[in-house]
Amino acid sequence: MKSTKSKPCEAWQLLVKFFFTQRADLPTLASEFELSPAQCHVLHLIEPDRPIPMGRLAEALACDASNVTGLIDRLESRGLVRRRPSADDRRVKSLELTPAGVRLRSTVLERITKPPDSLGRLSADEQRALVKILKRLLD
Amino acid sequence: MKSTKSKPCEAWQLLVKFFFTQRADLPTLASEFELSPAQCHVLHLIEPDRPIPMGRLAEALACDASNVTGLIDRLESRGLVRRRPSADDRRVKSLELTPAGVRLRSTVLERITKPPDSLGRLSADEQRALVKILKRLLD
DNA sequence: TATTGTTATACTCTATAACTATA
DNA sequence: TATAGTTATAGAGTATAACAATA
């Protein structure tokens, strides 16, 4: 009952492990930039020059819309994000990164998994294989 | 400036994306079992038949030890985890899953990334490659 | 009427600091 | 003195429900 039938499981067990490892690291990493894990997540989701309505951000975060208000309040008060009224529908507010937000996002994303350390040990072939596989997983 | 020099980055960018996708999914998934994301994390870290001192769990979660008290209080009150005094050092309390905890952990871990859906589309070779790569990344 | 975002409320998660009981 | 876990406290994250403005 050890490694008999569970061939397809090993891969996902490792992916789960990777996920939880990253999850444990995120608070420390985020605090380097005085961000919370959730704020990092928001920064990741708001791409530069791609305004996103608050409701769609809530969807992407898979959380209630009421959270987004406070989350964005805090990021906006730090000058990282802006609320912009939508032209089409005056109920909708779109979110966009400020220049400072764009810079911080880029810094955080480069920092979040340090490619030289772990990925540098992969051969070019392995990296290509990994990219191909992850693309399929995320499609 | 699209795919010129950033060969090693694509892999980690995808891993980051995978991580945040999973992070968004976790609250919904956890709530299926009336667990919080943090409780899922704890359940993942306490392996069956492997008691772990509270302090070491705090380390693994990369959080302050004071959190673990409340986190474990709630899991213990649901009968999923037990506190056991350590024989060597009476200050230390070790944590272990109850039978119900072991069962729930297994269910949650099977559910957390549904292997048939995304991983099932990978060939055996790809799965082996993925396992090999992830093992290196996590070592 | 239905929808977008906000507010009010309550609970969980989290860190800091002070405490206890052991060592 | 130092360490393991707890308690007290405060702030952030989260969901639910009720609300305002707009559609």
Task: Tell me the layout of helices and strands.
Two copies of one chain form a homodimer.
Chain A: H1 7-31, H2 37-45, E1 52-53, H3 54-61, H4 65-77, E2 81-85, E3 93-97, H5 99-112, H6 115-119, H7 124-138
Antiparallel strand pairs in A: 1-3, 2-3
Helix pairs in contact in A: 3-4
Chain B binds a DNA duplex (23 and 23 nucleotides) through residues 27, 36-39, 53-55, 58, 63-71, 74, 86, 89-93.
Order of helices and strands of chain A: HHEHHEEHHH
Ends of chain A: how far apart?
A: 33 Å
The number of distinct β-strands of chain A equals 3
Multimerization status: homodimer
Shape of chain A: elongated
The number of domains of chain A = 1
Ranges of chain A where pLDDT stays below 50 over 5 or more residues in a row are 1-8
If you had to describe this structure to a student in words, what would you say it looks like?
- Two copies of one chain form a homodimer.
- In chain A, helix 3 crosses helix 4 (65-77).
- Residues 1-8 of chain A have low confidence and may be disordered.
- Chain A has helices at residues 7-31, 37-45, 54-61, 65-77, 99-112, 115-119, 124-138, and strands spanning 52-53, 81-85, 93-97.
- Helices cover 64% and strands 9% of the residues of chain A.
- With 139 residues, chain A is mostly helical.
- The first copy, chain A, has one domain (18-138): Winged helix-like DNA-binding domain superfamily/Winged helix DNA-binding domain (Arc Repressor Mutant, subunit A).
- Chain A has seven helices and three strands, in the order ααβααββααα.
- The relative contact order of chain A is 0.11.
- The radius of gyration of chain A is 18 Å and the shape is elongated.
- Chain A starts with 6 loop residues before the first helix and ends with a helix.
- Chain A has a three-stranded antiparallel sheet with strand order 1-3-2.
- The interface between A and B is large, with 52 and 51 residues.
- The structure holds a DNA duplex (23 and 23 nucleotides).
